[in-house]
């Protein structure tokens, strides 16, 4: 479309320029860096919270499974939950989970 306009008239001149001033560019870059740092810190906190919770749940399940006086129902739910945790971890590590 622009090429057609350029061919149709010999007096057309196209100018592409940046409308931001140097100060605006520096401010935008600083803001983007701060946003990126904040996002990384947030993701790290979430990661450690998930690791902590999954670790605690896994430890409880292992204890329930190996306690000598655990009821069969307790062993069953602990085994199921532990299997789910392991499958979720493997899925996360291999990237098989849903991606947005």
Fraction of residues in helix:
over 70%
Number of strands: 0
Which overall shape is indicated by the principal axes computed on the Cα atoms? elongated
Q: Bin the strand percentage.
A: under 5%
Biggest beta sheet attributes: none
Secondary-structure element string: HHH
Uncertain runs with pLDDT below 50, 5 residues or more? none
Distance between the ends: 34 Å
- Name the structural class: mainly alpha
Task: Give the rounded overall mean pLDDT.
Answer: 85
| Total DSSP helices | 3
Cα-based radius of gyration, to the nearest Å: 28 Å
Number of domains: 1
Protein topology:
Elements: H1 2-8, H2 22-66, H3 72-94
Helix pairs in contact: 2-3
What can you see in these coordinates?
There is one protein chain. The chain has 100 residues and is mainly alpha-helical. It has one domain. The protein contains 3 helices and no strands. Helix 2 runs antiparallel to helix 3 (72-94). It is elongated, with a radius of gyration of 28 Å. The chain starts with a helix and ends in a 6-residue tail after the last helix. The model has no long low-confidence stretch (mean pLDDT 85).
Keywords:
single chain, 100 residues, mainly alpha, 0% strand, elongated
